Amino acid sequence: MSVEEAELAISHGADAIGLVSQMPSGPGIIDDAQIRRIALSVPPPVASFLLTAAETADAIAEHVVRSGASTVQIVKHIDPAEHAKLAKMLPAIRRVQVIHVEGADVLSLIPLYAPHLHAFLLDSGRPNAAAQTLGGTGQTHDWEISRQFVAASPIPVFLAGGLKPENIADAIRLVRPYGVDLCSGVRTDGTLDAGKLGRFMDAVARA
Fold first, then answer.
1. pTM over 0.85
2. Beta-bridge mates of residue 126
3. What digits encode the pLDDT tens for the residues 39-68?
4. What share of the chain is helix, strand, coil (3-state, %, to 5)?
5. Residue 136 confidence (pLDDT) above 70
6. Angle (nearest 5°) at CA 138 between 51 and 195
7. Please, are residues 126 and 103 in contact by the beta-carbon 8 Å criterion?
8. Which fold has domain 3-206?
């Protein structure tokens, strides 16, 4: 949520920083001006991920350019045709599609999206619920489905959703993701907690 939090995460070994723009749910939301300040402060080779709820290639591209981020993480299940258009508009920007694991039917999304992406990210949102959630739930999902998704995907897959120091080793051993993503699991009262972050990174290293 700040340059200082980004520096803390990087000092503990984070490979990427997530920057959460306006969302219908979840912690850590910051305005676009703050997102740009943080993104421009992140040193290579650490990546800056813009989390956007935009749904069209035009809106996503405009948001990415405004943010200064190196990667865009699209949190809604958008039309694959918009991904194809976005790839032509911003070929140098890494594109990650969030998949909300509500059931095994998400496996059918792999061939639709994979040709246009650099990676997937599996999360525990409920995009079709009456009270829509698109991440930051602090809840896990069915890791067996995630394991099947990783095995079937031709591109890298990140795992998110309720990850914390106490469960990350089990998640990695079962799912075997390319990387892991987290927010609430290393925060206390909304603030990035150095102790939790250190324990989490230690557990990842041992997994």
1. yes
2. 133
3. 999 999 999 999 999 999 999 999 999 999
4. 40, 20, 40
5. no
6. 95
7. no
8. TIM Barrel (3.20.20)
